[in-house]
Design brief:
This protein has 186 residues and is mainly alpha-helical. The protein has 3 domains: 6-51, Orthogonal Bundle (Arc Repressor Mutant, subunit A); 72-128, Winged helix-like DNA-binding domain superfamily/Winged helix DNA-binding domain (Arc Repressor Mutant, subunit A, Orthogonal Bundle); 133-185, no CATH class. It is 56% helix and 4% strand. The protein has 10 helices and 2 strands; from the N terminus they run H-H-H-H-H-H-E-E-H-H-H-H. Strand 1 and strand 2 form a beta hairpin. It is elongated, with a radius of gyration of 33 Å. The model is unreliable at 151-156 and 182-186 (pLDDT under 50). It holds the Pfam family HTH_48. Residues 9-53 form the Mos1 transposase HTH domain. InterPro entries: Mos1_HTH, Transposase-MT_Hybrid.
Length: 186
């Protein structure tokens, strides 16, 4: 994380050396930095630290676990797990790797360029490819019905276009997307 308040802490240290009060220091910082000034409480806290003899303007290191678990090692583990079994959900991967679900999701999305589809993840390579072939046939079907739009307005559809649609689908090796009962009517 970048330290956006470092310059202000240096200014606070300078004000302490000039024997300015914490209130005066905060007022000067507000004039200089406007909306980007650190909070009044933080200014008073840093003013007190520098007055007590602190020299370092950098913030203290904090204890606790690291901010992120998105290390190269964990990214590789997630990648290997996805390659070995594409049927795993994010939750299953998180449990197996002892990582947080959000960490696994972020690794998949941002580091491995994958996305979630129905709780499963797919490669980001598929994003740029055209939609599956079945959708092309649905487009063909809608073109045919637009040509014969009068058929849609009638209560009983003229079945003359049904055999032609069936033959179009069968010639391309795909079963029509309507129920078999409709085929029996033809």
């Amino acid at each position: 994380m970048s330290d956006r308040y470092l310059e202000q802490r240096i200014s606070i240290k300078f004000c302490v050396k000039l024997s300015k009060s914490a209130s005066e220091t905060h007022h000067l910082l507000k004039e200089a930095y406007g909306d980007e000034v650190m909070s009044r409480a933080r200014v008073f806290d840093w003013h007190k630290r520098f007055k007590e003899g602190r020299e370092d303007v950098r913030d203290d290191a904090r204890s606790g676990r690291p901010v992120t678990h998105r290390t190269d090692e964990n990214i590789q583990k997630v990648k290997d797990l996805v390659c070995s079994n594409r049927q795993l959900t994010v939750r299953m991967m998180a449990e197996e790797l002892n990582l947080d679900k959000e960490t696994v999701r972020l690794i998949l999305k941002e580091n491995l360029n994958m996305r979630k589809i129905s709780a499963k993840v797919i490669s980001g390579v598929l994003k740029g490819e055209p939609t599956p072939r079945k959708l092309d046939f649905q487009t063909d079907l809608s073109k045919e019905t637009r040509k014969n739009s009068s058929c849609l307005r009638k209560k009983r559809c003229n079945l003359t276009m049904l055999p032609r649609l069936v033959s179009n689908f069968l010639s391309q090796g795909i079963l029509p997307p309507w129920p078999p009962k409709a085929l029996e009517l033809a």
